[in-house]
Amino acid sequence: MPEEIPVPPWRRPKKAPPRMPLTQDRIVVTALGILDAEGLDALSMRRLAQELKTGHASLYAHVGNRDELLDLVFDIVLTEVEVPEPEPGRWAEQVKEMCRSLRRMFLAHRDLARIAIDRVPLGPNGMVGMERTMNLLRSGGLHDELAAYGGDLLSTFVTAEALEQSSRNPGTEQGREQAGVFADQLHGYLKSLPATSFPNLVHLAGPITSLDSDRRFELGLEIIIAGLLAGAGEAADDQVRTAGSPPAES
């Protein structure tokens, strides 16, 4: 390989390309890339600084600590969740569509459910999402307490289901194979129990050990939405009964 030829004195030497400025947005996007590629345990301030080719102390001018970083990462991905505008006659299906979109977001980003399980989405995207969710739930006739708790219940269910799915069905081929082996072993064990003492576990061994996460998710949605509709119906009946009651005697 020939030696490098010096630049003639009448020419300007090549300048090194300018560094990209360190901004909070760049830090968060880079952190999300590490999370998706390597998982939550690999995402440290030091690892992030290495990826950005800077000192980790420089990050603290833009992000207070790792916990704040995770808040920001969670908030940026919430833009991927679609919360529909209410349409008459489609309330139940629209709630399902919103939950499916939330689930897709979790499954698209490695370990994101671990971040979200104990975190309230109070960033700008999270606040907009919660407002739209409350608007959708209230459009179905849910009273205030039922709408507020129903939104929390749906979010918790989707997050927990995504977390369970990531542990039951790991992304690697080896992990999926191990999960399948364990499910088969558990199914065989439940079936081997004495039916006189454990009739329900023996009978339900198949559904209990099923790895069909999509089916389990849809069943869970049906149960929660049916409960919310029942609660809304009971509240409406109470209002009708109250309105039809004779005035109390003075």
From TrEMBL:
The keyword Transcription applies. Transmembrane segments: none annotated. Residues 44-63 bind DNA. Residues 21-81 form the HTH tetR-type domain. The keyword Glycoprotein does not apply. This is TetR family transcriptional regulator ActII. Keywords: DNA-binding, Repressor, Transcription, Transcription regulation.
